[in-house]
């Protein structure tokens, strides 16, 4: 891709949109908010229940600033994770409404792909989050276009991943390529490929994401039901080789409300084409977030299988209640299957039954998280999304997340 041509294209789109701008005055002012969250958890992984159970941890605290001045909006959020020893920007963008139909966000903003804002009902997200395809944030420009009340189109260009915070136990990596971030992105580290004899070979891979284009179409086909399709194409750049491969992802989704039920379903195919530092095309790429890369070793790979189909479904039911400050209880179950395209690899499953308790500014997620080859549900953090292990048992974690939002 020619970066100058790409930037010129978006400048032209930006300039042409100004022609349709309307003189609407927004009320100036800003609001400062945030959240504080705690986790109470108990794990039962490969070796059985931990002697540390139960554990009480400080999950996160965050600061938000939202407002507008002179018709230009600002939205900013910064997060701190004491347990992981890191902190980073969640999002930060300038927004401008050119017309009732066109709104622009410039900066660190959510990638328009698949089900937004989340494909999940639980605190755990769904499987696409862990491969960088749910609630992902990158640095670029996004246009939301609404030609009618029933149609939403998003077109975006992201030059690179969002700015990073410190790696756990280390410093920031120059060039926004490290794992100190909220959403999963491809980062430098070890990749892997399957050799001709069937063995898995590890190799260094100095990778990062560049020049990503996104397009998303969502249509309200009837009251309470949305269907949509998404496409993504970008470059995975190897700084040692000074070369890049084109990576793609496609999604189709449906979100629907019927009575007090909510359904979310999604299909994703992604192909993260990339080369290791030795020029070999990779079957596993490294990804990172929250200050950590996915780890590997002992006969398996960390990282993420570079090519897979992802199947997602989640169902929730909202029960209104009037019990003190509690206004609703929402039971749900979320499930993901990641079907890896390499025959030598083993699939990932992710099953989260639970319920959400809403009580004014306090939201409490009670989850019984279960996973097979799920990198967060294992004694060996980061194991699972690469080659995985054959016929694993369900690892389990009972988790209560209590958050106060203001």
Strand content: over 45%
**Largest sheet: spatial strand order:** 1-3-4-5-6-7-8-12-13-14-15-20-22-23-24-25
Report on the biggest sheet: 16 strands, antiparallel, barrel
SS content category: mainly beta
Shape: globular
Topology record:
Blueprint lengths: L2 H16 L10 E17 L2 E2 L5 E15 L2 E10 L4 E12 L4 E9 L26 E12 L2 E11 L23 E2 L2 E6 L5 E6 L1 E16 L2 E14 L4 E16 L2 E11 L12 E2 L1 E3 L2 E2 L10 E2 L1 E11 L1 E5 L2 E15 L7 E12 L2 E11 L22 E11 L1
Describe this structure in words.
The chain is mostly beta strands. It contains one helix and 25 strands. The protein has one helix spanning 3-18; strands at residues 29-45, 48-49, 55-69, 72-81, 86-97, 102-110, 137-148, 151-161, 185-186, 189-194, 200-205, 207-222, 225-238, 243-258, 261-271, 284-285, 287-289, 292-293, 304-305, 307-317, 319-323, 326-340, 348-359, 362-372, 395-405. The strands form four sheets. The chain has a 16-stranded antiparallel beta barrel with strand order 1-3-4-5-6-7-8-12-13-14-15-20-22-23-24-25. A hairpin with a 2-residue loop joins strand 7 and strand 8. The longest helix is centred in the first third of the chain and has 16 residues, at 3-18. The radius of gyration is 21 Å and the shape is globular. It starts with a helix and ends with a strand.
Keywords:
406 residues, disordered N terminus, three-stranded antiparallel β-sheet, mainly beta, single chain, 4% helix, 16-stranded antiparallel beta barrel
Structure described in brief:
This protein has 406 residues and is mostly beta strands. The chain has one helix at residues 3-18, and strands at 29-45, 48-49, 55-69, 72-81, 86-97, 102-110, 137-148, 151-161, 185-186, 189-194, 200-205, 207-222, 225-238, 243-258, 261-271, 284-285, 287-289, 292-293, 304-305, 307-317, 319-323, 326-340, 348-359, 362-372, 395-405. 4% of the residues lie in helices and 57% in strands.
